[in-house]
Amino acid sequence: MTENHRKIIVPDTNIFLHDSDSIYSFPGQILIIPLEVIEEIDDQKRRSDEVGRHARRTSRILDEIRVKGSLSEGADLDNGCTVRVAFGDKRMDCLPPSLRNNKEDNRILSTALSIQDKYPDNEVVFMSKDINMRIKADAIGLQCMDYEQDKIELEDLYMGYKEIEVSEDDFKTLASGGSLPRELFGNFTVNEIAIVKNNAQVLYCRIDPETNLAAPLKANMDDVVAGISSLNAEQMFAFDLLLDDRVPLVTLNGKAGTGKTLVALAAGVRQVLEDTLYQKLLVSRPIVSMGKEMGFLPGGVEEKLDPWMTPLYDNFEIIFSVDGRKSDKDKRHVKEIISASNMIQVEALSYIRGRSLPNQYMVVDEAQNLSPLEVKTIITRAGKGTKIVLTGDPYQIDHPYLDQNSNGLNYAVERFKDSPLAGHVTLVKGERSELAEVAAQLL
After folding, report:
1. Is 242 within 8 Å of 388 (Cβ atoms)?
2. Residue 96: which residues within 8 A CB-CB, separation 6 or more?
3. Is there a contact between 103 and 117 (Cβ–Cβ < 8 Å)?
4. Which whole number is the average pLDDT over 403-411?
5. What's the distance, CA 66 to chain centroid?
6. Is the per-residue pLDDT at 248 higher than 80?
7. Spatial strand order in the sheet of 75-76
8. Does an H or E element contain 56, and which?
9. Quick check: helix, strand or coil at residue 376?
10. What is the pLDDT confidence band of residue 89, given thresholds at 50, 70 and 90?
11. Mind listing the domains of the chain with CATH numbers?
12. What are the Cα distances from residue 377, in Å, to 136, 176, 352, 408?
């Protein structure tokens, strides 16, 4: 394909701060990076978080590409992509009056317009994860799009279970504790749960990862796991996967109040404290605010993290109490028990990079606020004998550059749906309270 017919991608800074490997995501195309983007990446490289890591890695990748060829003229990658760094030859007065300032975003848009004018025979696409940047780009005549390399359509997301009608004889086989060949279940994947029906009768089975047969669930509605019982079928499905040590990755998603975190922690408490199947229960969540930040918090690391970890302690209080209600004194007592325990550890995800976690039961709550690369980082920390549970609500995302279709939780669900090492359940019924359930539906 000649250069005149190749698509030109002009990326915004947030593409690289979201995924430094995005440089390799445009095979056969021309990637022209505005010089202002390089400046913004340089401004972010001193940060100690994931954004800073992506900024530093992007700089290293571009420096390695620079060795292969001039970035001003274009350096070719192995996948056929040509990478260039360019500055605009247009003045800011090419933009509408309201955008004629020295703001970095507007300078990037000005450069994108220059590139579009310079290559009239090419399709030029401005790419950004910032919704407002895409709106402004469209308003000034730029074709624009989101970075969709890791997008999963929420409506098509794998649920982890579905219904199937079977013959009366096959139903009797399952009801008596027997198994059925997987072939009878069509396109069911490994570890997918089948809601088996015959007339008005219903039972549940799962495609076993070892035998490749459809066998009845080991969990049932009467089971009590660390004091917690299943309140609906989906919670029972979750317990069946959570209590199976042959499934080292379990993902649970659902709206607020469906019990995702509670069942995950209850299964962990049982397998760590009662069954001693794992050496430690490690519980974590990303540090992402809902709404306006309150500024710096006083105290040491533990005190700073306490507001973020309180929702996890709330669930532990339910597990460790008889009726789910405790006084403030009792709540502090639960925290002290967890803090003093060598078998339960609550910490922020900020400290996980570089660690190896063998023989642990790890729960990552609010995983919808993680990028696909961050989820990869977490899962690759798993050592021998470790089980990882990701829980989250794809409808409640607080990360500025993630949405229902691009968050790491949904990405993991879709990528692992055919793996015998993973299982997933979508919880749909709210059990927190009648008010919480109605609010989740109406608000």
Report:
1. no
2. 139, 140
3. no
4. 84
5. 33
6. yes
7. 75-76, 82-86, 30-34, 8-11, 124-127, 143-145
8. helix 50-68
9. helix
10. low
11. 3-145 (3.40.50.1010), 224-442 (3.40.50.300)
12. 34, 43, 8, 11
Amino acid at 117: D
269-278, 379-388, 430-439: which has the minimum mean pLDDT?
A: 430-439
Q: Which amino acid is at 324?
A: G
Residue 146 Cα to chain centre, angstroms: 18
Burial string for 348-382 (b: 16+ CB within 10 Å, else e) reads ebeebeeeebeebbbbbbbbbbbbbbbbebbbebb
Which of 319-323, 376-380, 433-437 is the least confident region? Answer: 319-323
- State the number of CA atoms in the 13 A half-sphere of 258 facing the CB: 24
What would the pLDDT profile of 303-324 be if each residue is shown by its tens digit?
Answer: 556 666 677 878 888 887 744 4
pLDDT tens digits, 204-215: 999 998 999 999
Contact between residue 274 and residue 267 where contact means Cβ atoms under 8 Å apart: no
CA triple 14-19-22, angle to 5 deg: 95
pLDDT for position 99: 73
Q: Which amino acid is located at 111 in the chain?
A: T
pLDDT class for 354, splitting at 50, 70, 90? low
**Amino acid occupying residue 340:** A
The whole-angstrom separation of Cα 323 and Cα 302 is: 28
CA contacts within 13 A on the Cβ side of 362: 29
